[in-house]
Amino acid sequence: MKQKLYIDTSVFGGNFDIEFAEFTIPLFERLRNGEFITLFSTVTQDELENAPKNVKELVNNLKIENTEFLEMTDEVVELATEYIMIK
After folding, report:
1. Closest CA to 76 of 11, 6, 10, 9
2. How many Å apart are CA 87 and CA 28, to the nearest integer?
3. Is residue 77 very low, low, confident or very high in pLDDT (cuts 50, 70, 90)?
4. pLDDT tens, residue by residue, 46-65
5. Most exposed among 3, 69, 78, 79, judged by the fewest C-beta atoms under 10 Å?
6. Distance CA 82, CA 85 (A)
7. Is 44 helix (H, G, I), strand (E, B) or coil?
8. pTM of the complete model
9. Which of 15, 7, 19, 20 lies closest to 58 in space, CA to CA?
10. What 3-state DSSP class applies to 85?
């Protein structure tokens, strides 16, 4: 079974940032090669709507069969709220 990775919006943008490219370019190569299942959330999807064209293209070049979409549920919101309160 493939590992699943949740990719935050900033990681997509980091692919084009010299400071992070050393790490993100190999990561996205591995994602394109199907080594992992990429997890997306509605939050990530909403944030990527305003992303630069090159970031959107990076997302769109990931194979759909290697991606999984996570729905925002009440349970997720409650868990996130609890996590934030603990911090």
Report:
1. 6
2. 30
3. confident
4. 999 999 999 999 999 999 99
5. 3
6. 5
7. helix
8. 0.77
9. 15
10. helix
Quote the tokens at residue 30.
Answer: 């591995």
CB atoms < 10 A from the CB of 31, how many? 21
CB 28 within 8 A of CB 15: yes
Q: How far apart are CA 29 and CA 50, in angstroms?
A: 23
Counting the structural domains of the chain, the total is: 1
**Alpha helix (H) residue ranges in the chain:** 9-14, 18-32, 42-48, 53-60, 74-86
Q: Burial of 58 by CB count in 10 Å (0-12 exposed, 13-18 middle, 19+ buried)?
A: buried
Q: Quick one: which of 57, 46, 50, 47 has its CA closest to 16?
A: 57
- Residue range of the domain that includes 23: 3-86
* The two three-digit tokens of residue 1, written as one number: 């079974």
